Amino acid sequence: MPWPPETVDDLGELILRRWADADVAALTVAVLDSLDHLQPWMVWATPEGATEEAFHRFRADSDARAADGHEAVYGVFDRATGAVLGGVGLHDRMGPGGVEVGYWLHVAATGRGLMTGVVGHLTDLALSQEHVLWV
Fold this sequence. Notes:
33% helix; 5 strands; 23% strand; single chain; 4 helices; five-stranded antiparallel sheet; alpha+beta
């Protein structure tokens, strides 16, 4: 399997796929809806940082890092409706052999165990890669 995969779609009611330019408007709305919820944890979760312009840059930067194998960043989408429920990523900023999981959820999607399942699945996926020794 090429690393990182474009889509992770064996998650039941959820699908993970790389962000596209067409997702930026919905991503911006989802983050703005959840700013109070996200601000204690996400340095980028500010009115100034949660703009379509900022998310277009984020998407392009994420694609570049994925192309060189340093990152796998996905939108978390409701399979039935296509709604943006959050974002998740595997990042190689932990040193050789390790990856870090980062994630956020729309405030209305919390408390249902959705991200627990996503993180478990991505951990298994990451550990299946020869170059990943720990998550």
